[in-house]
Amino acid sequence: MAAPKVAVVGAGVIGLSTALCIAETCPSCSVTVLSDQFSPNTTSDIAAGMLIPHTYPGTPIHVQKQWFTETFTYLFAISNSAEASEAGIHLVSGWQVFKNTPEEELPFWSDVVLGFRPMSEAELQKFPQHRFGQAFTTLKCDCPPYLLWLEKRLKATGVQIYTRKVADLWELHSEYNIVVNCTGIGAHQLVGDEKLFPIRGQVLKVHAPWVKNFIRDGDGLTYIYPGIHRVTLGGTREKGSWSLSPNPGTTKDIFDRCCSLEPSLRGAQDIKVKVGLRPSRWCVRLQREVLSQGGLKLPVVHNYGHGAGGFSVHRGTAKEAAHLVGECIAALQGSSSRAKL
Ligand code: FAD
Hints:
nine-stranded mixed sheet, EC 1.4.3.1, Rossmann fold, binds flavin-adenine dinucleotide, peroxisome, D-amino_acid_oxidase_CS, flavoprotein, 15 strands, alpha/beta, oxidoreductase
């Protein structure tokens, strides 16, 4: 069989990192990224990009921990390299605070992030409304620079990148041997996945360069995440809402909630409001499927549905998707050698 032609549909953090893993693990493949939108117009551009895992109820915890560990290890190496600033990857320390002690004092990811410990009394004095807290150091992606860095890496490894809206995965069957579906919330329409739904998130990106530590309320709704240039203030989780229009009342509410955690934010400037739709699902859809029509077959690998945690697990799920692509290639090679006999 000639060099397998692989199309990756989608250019958010999942599509770009999956294409990169495929190109790295299968150098003989010809990899192409097809997407109707690229940075800065994807959901991935809106994200805060913090490596704090979201829990997928339908995925075993040991699998989620492996995805997170692989992602953390990969980005930690970048943060320690001369690429860190261009890739927008940096370490950030801070606090997760709770009004009441949580049932699970040690989350599954506590030994993957760095220096996880209960907050001291002195630290808790900063948060008079909270009784318990965890301090740790994690990684943060500044999302648009990271997406551009991934695109640059892809081009350097010979991956082709084209703007194209795909109406039906089958339309790619005559041009590609394998298709990888990384369309995020777009998969709802593209493959009619009714289990996939949006959780709308509104955030503010502000100029407040004195804020150096992250602060996250344990309920996950209110957070302050400092990036290299701007601080992300959040947020909202509106299940089932498809609206991409900012809501001014929500903007004021987010700002007030963040100021109650960090009063100095009252001096923040240049407030920009962004909205994104988290591609949410009971579990990430990471699986092979074979489409067939009129006796022809098209192997597909799905990798979408990362909800609120796509950045936290992207490298781990990309590696697994690349492994599934390897299985598709082996199956294709097996059937083409059987056909020659
Ligand atoms: P997307 O970024 O949406 O990319 C999908 C791609 O597919 C796009 O390029 C799109 O154009 C393309 N596409 C779709 N349909 C088609 C089609 N038919 N044909 C061609 N192309 C198509 N995660 C974290 O880990 N940490 C955080 O701190 C964090 N903060 C967040 C804050 C907010 C407000 C939001 C909204 C999300 C946050 N997330 C966070 C979640 C994270 O953003 C997502 O999990 C992640 O971006 C999903 O990436 P994706 O590549 O699957 O989707």
